[in-house]
């Protein structure tokens, strides 16, 4: 059936006998053109929408990879633990660590340790030495001086009392200059009196070798 026959039948059904077949054919072509234009526009709009989504994804900022300031590790401190502990040595602790933390990380007290001789609540500082004395050492430190020996607070003949000496007197000790003399005074002010001459190794810059060389020149 041709297009003209279809047009005649459609006109007869719609009572469009007065309308010319060529006019009906023109209207049909116009409708087809409008539908085709709408379909093409919808397709282009869909393609444009897809492009915009991809473009937005490409422009998303990449992660910088920089660490969060809150996650940065706090500075730590190093403490030398000696004496009657299970594992003497150098340990890295948190910046707010106390003497109890140093003892714990070194394995705890040994059976010979005099646990009451230390202030476990004392806050530690970087480079500090924590020495745990034995009960025998603590008892010897607490014992009264022998007859003829210098009593507490007194200077033995020819020796410098590291508990009472000022900076000038401390500098008379071999190997102790102005800087170390001041460190001894600062340590004394922060920790109290030296209980024994061995405690001087707790002062920064004074180790076992220094103690061995000055042992006969100092007293407490």
Provide a brief overview of the structure.
With 220 residues, the chain is mainly alpha-helical. Helices cover 40% and strands 9% of the residues.
Number of E-state strands: 5
Terminal CA distance reads 129 Å
Protein structure class: mainly alpha
Roughly how much helix do the residues carry, as a percent range? 40-55%
What general outline do the C-alpha atoms trace? rod-shaped
Give helix and strand order, one letter per element, not per position: HHEEHEHEHHHE
Mean pLDDT: 76
Q: How large is the share of residues in beta strands?
A: 5-15%
Q: How many H/I helices?
A: 7
Q: Regions with pLDDT < 50 over 5+ consecutive residues?
A: 49-61, 147-153
Q: Can you summarize the main beta sheet?
A: 3 strands, mixed
Question: What's the gyration radius in Å?
Answer: 47 Å
**Order of the strands making up the biggest sheet:** 2-1-3
Summarize the structure in words:
Helix 1 (about 5-15) crosses helix 2 (about 20-60). The chain has a 3-stranded mixed β-sheet with strand order 2-1-3, covered by helices on one side. With about 220 residues, the protein is mainly α. Mean pLDDT is about 75; it is low at about 50-60 and about 145-155. About 40% of the residues lie in helices and about 10% in strands.
Give the SSE layout:
Blueprint: H1 3-13, H2 21-58, E1 77-83, E2 89-93, H3 99-105, E3 129-132, H4 135-142, E4 160-161, H5 167-170, H6 178-191, H7 208-214, E5 218-219
Helix pairs in contact: 1-2
